[in-house]
User: Which sequence fits this backbone?
């Protein structure tokens, strides 16, 4: 969001210019920033365009992450609904939390954010399903001999106990020396 909307450094400005060149001037806000809703309407209706956007965004996202994580200590959590689609699971050593949400709940949450039925369908259809993500994560962990899949269901409100339990499980796992995993 920061890359599309507020960062002024050359690398991010050039990224926005490239996105505007690819997707048109109708996505431009004042200051040459990107209207994410308009861009979303374009890319979530065309998987090829979404893939192009992910390619353009990869370098600036990695740069931003490196800068944010520089000299940080402890556990760093990255929140990304598209980490697998963007092929960035390596950033967290394949240690991933997969959040399951019923499709109806997803749709209602997007409706609450004022997305139209068409926008909701195109967004949900542009992402891997829960089962596909699970399959890809497990295959990647097996292939790389590294990582762990953590899972949680976030279909209901008031899930604090489950989130607390998950957090404790993650801390326990990350506290084990790597040679013992």
Assistant:
């Amino acid at each position: 969001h920061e890359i599309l909307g507020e960062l002024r450094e050359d690398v991010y400005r050039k990224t926005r210019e490239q996105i505007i060149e690819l997707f048109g001037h109708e996505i431009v806000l004042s200051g040459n920033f990107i209207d994410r809703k308009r861009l979303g309407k374009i890319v979530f209706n065309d998987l090829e365009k979404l893939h192009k956007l992910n390619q353009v965004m990869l370098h600036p996202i990695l740069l931003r992450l490196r800068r944010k994580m520089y000299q940080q200590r402890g556990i760093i959590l990255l929140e990304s609904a598209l980490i697998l689609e963007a092929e960035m699971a390596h950033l967290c050593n394949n240690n991933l939390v997969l959040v399951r949400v019923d499709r109806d709940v997803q749709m209602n949450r997007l409706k609450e954010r004022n997305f139209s039925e068409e926008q909701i369908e195109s967004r949900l259809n542009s992402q891997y399903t829960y089962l596909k993500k699970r399959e890809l994560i497990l295959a990647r962990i097996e292939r790389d001999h590294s990582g762990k899949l953590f899972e949680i269901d976030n279909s209901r409100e008031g899930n604090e106990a489950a989130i607390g339990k998950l957090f404790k499980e993650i801390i326990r796992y990350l506290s084990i020396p790597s040679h013992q995993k």
